[in-house]
Amino acid sequence: MKLETIKSIILVLLISLSLLCTFAIWNYEPHYESADGDRATEAKLAGHEETKKSIIQPSQLLFHEGDDVLGLANKEEEDMLYKSFLEDWSFYDFKMVDFMDKSEVMPDNYVEIIFPTAIPSSLIGDLFTIDDSMVYNNTSFSRMYITMDVNQTKNQIVFENDGSGIDISANIQNIVQVVDYLSESKVNNKFQSYITYQNVNDKPIYLPKDTKIVAKQFRYTTIDPDSQSLQNILFSNPSSVEKTYRMGSGEEVFTDGNRAMVVSGLLMDYENFITSEKNEDKRSRDSENKDGELITQTLNFINSHSGWTAEEEGISFQLFDLQYNADTNRSVFRLTYHNYPIFSPKGLANISVTMRDQSVSEYVRPLVNLTNSYEIDENAGDDVYSSEQLINALENSNQYNSILDIALGYHLEESTGGQVYDLKPMWHIKTYNGWEEFNPVEKNVPGGGYNSAMGTN
Fold it and tell me: CA-CA-CA-CA torsion for 279, 285, 289, 294, nearest 10 degrees?
C-alpha cells in the first residue's frame, strides 16, 4: 500500500473521530445526582461523622469537698475522665422523683457534671449504659450529681431537671469501684480551685482561679461555595442554581427559586423556603418536640455529607444550645479547643440547623476549617482577668444585666499574617441577649452580643 493511501485513510479516520466528538458535545446534557425532596445527596464535604456521645460533651466536671470546688487543671484529662463515665459505668434502678435539693441527697463529697445546654432526658440511654428501668418523660437536664459515698444506697446519681418539677435518679453498678476510681483521679492528677458566682436564676457558676490558657494560631482551609459538592448537598437540582451578587454587601446568593444559599465572607446561610411556608401551621406542634428527635435529625443531616469539618487535634464541634419555641427548633454546635469554647463575632465558630417537620429549614455554618496549629503564644493570655477580678468588676458595675452564664474560652480572630486565625483567651458573658466578650470598659457589641440574623454565635 502506498504511503499516500495510508495518509488518506488516517486523515479520514481523524475527521470522522472529530465529527463524532462534536456531535457528542452538542447532544450532551449534564447529569447531577438529585435528591429526593429535601434529602441530601451523597455529596460530601471534607469532614467526618459524629455520634451523640461524641457531640454531647460537658463543659465542666467538678469535685465538691464540703465548701471547696475543685476541677482538673488539664482539660484533656477532664475529657478522659468523662469518657470513662460513658464506657465503663452502667446505671440501673431509675426513678422519677420530685425536685430534690442536692444538699439533701448528696453527701459533702460528690462530683458535678455540667453541660452547656439542657439535654433531653430521653438521650440518657444514648449517652450512658442503662437498664430497662428508665422511664422517659418530657424533661431535660444540664447537671448531673454523682455520690462519693460508697455507703449511699439510693440516689447515687441524680439528673437534675433543668427547670422545676421532676428529677431522675438512679444507682450505679459497682459503686465501690467507681468511687475508688474517682478518688484515685483526685490523687493522680493536678487540680485547681474554682470560685462560685450565682447567676440571675440563683444557679451556681463555677469560675477557675487559674485563667492561664494557651493562645494558639491556626492555618485554615476554605469550602468553595461554587463547588458542585456543596450545591449537591443543599439543592435538589444543582443545574438550576443561579448565582447573583447583592449590591453594597457583596454577598453571593445561590438560588433555585425554592432554596437559597447566602454567602457572606466565609459564613453560609442556607434556607429552604418551601419547608418554611409548608410547615407554618405545624410550628406549635413541633415546638413541643423535646424528646431528643431534634438532635437525631440534626446529627443525621450533618453526618450525611460529612459536615463536621474540625479535623485538627483538640478542635471539635460540641452541642452548645437547643432552642425550642413557636418559630424554631434549632440545634447549635460550637467549636471548642480542648473543651474551651470558641466565639466569633462573624459567626465562624458555630454550626446551626433548624428543623421543621423532619426537614432542614435553615443551615448556617462556616466555610472555613482550622487545620494546622503552627505557633503558640504563651504570653497572650496574661492580660485576662483573674476570676476574682472578673467577679469584682461584675459586682461593681451594671454593665451586664441578668447574667446567665460565664465561660473562659477563646476569641477567634483573623490574623494579619496570611491565611491564619488567632485563638485569643478571653472571658465571655451570657445574658438574655446572647453571648458577648467581657470588656471591663464597655460592651464589645452594643445591645446584641454575638447574636445576628444568621443565628447565635
Answer: 0
- Whats the size of the chain, residue-wise? 457
* DSSP string for residues in 15-53: HHHHHHHHHHHHT--------STT---S---S-B---HH
Q: 312 in helix, strand or coil?
A: coil
Per-residue DSSP letter, 190: -
Which 3 state secondary structure label does DSSP give 316?
strand
What number of H helices and E strands is found in the chain?
11, 24
| Neighbour count for residue 373 (Cβ, 10 Å) | 18
- Mean pLDDT over the full length of the chain: 82
How open is the CA angle 210-213-216, to the nearest 5 degrees?
175
Could you report the per-residue pLDDT of 342-381, keeping only the tens digit for each? 999 999 999 999 988 778 999 999 999 998 887 666 666 6
Per-residue pLDDT tens over the stretch 20-74: 544 443 333 333 233 333 333 346 787 899 999 999 999 999 999 989 999 999 9
d(CA 194, CA 103): 19
Q: Write out the E strands in 213-349.
A: 215-222, 242-245, 252-255, 259-264, 267-272, 315-324, 329-337, 340-343
Geometric angle at alpha carbon 385, from 382 and 390, rounded to 5°? 170
Cβ proximity of 220 and 226 under 8 Å? no
Q: Is the dihedral of CA 388, 192, 200, 322 positive or negative?
A: positive
Cα→Cα distances 122→298, 321, 332, 394, Å: 16, 17, 19, 37
**86-94: average pLDDT:** 90
**Cα separations in angstroms, 90 against 53, 58, 113, 125:** 15, 18, 16, 10
> What pTM did the predictor assign?
0.84
d(CA 73, CA 408): 13
- The position carrying cell 461523622 is 49
**Cα 390 from Cα 300, distance rounded (Å):** 40
C-alpha pair distances (Å), 307 with each of 47, 232, 282, 304, 356: 5, 13, 28, 8, 20
Nine cell digits for residue 311? 479535623
- 124 within 8 A of 115, measured Cβ to Cβ: no
Beta bridge partners of 321: 332
Cα–chain center distance at 370: 15
- Whether the CB-CB separation of 135 and 176 falls below 8 Å is answered with no
Q: What span, in angstroms and rounded, lies between the C-alpha atoms of 82 and 181?
A: 12
CA atoms within 13 A on the CB side of 332: 23
60 strand-pairing partners:
114
In the predicted model, is pLDDT for residue 434 greater than 60? yes
CA distance 186 to 182: 7
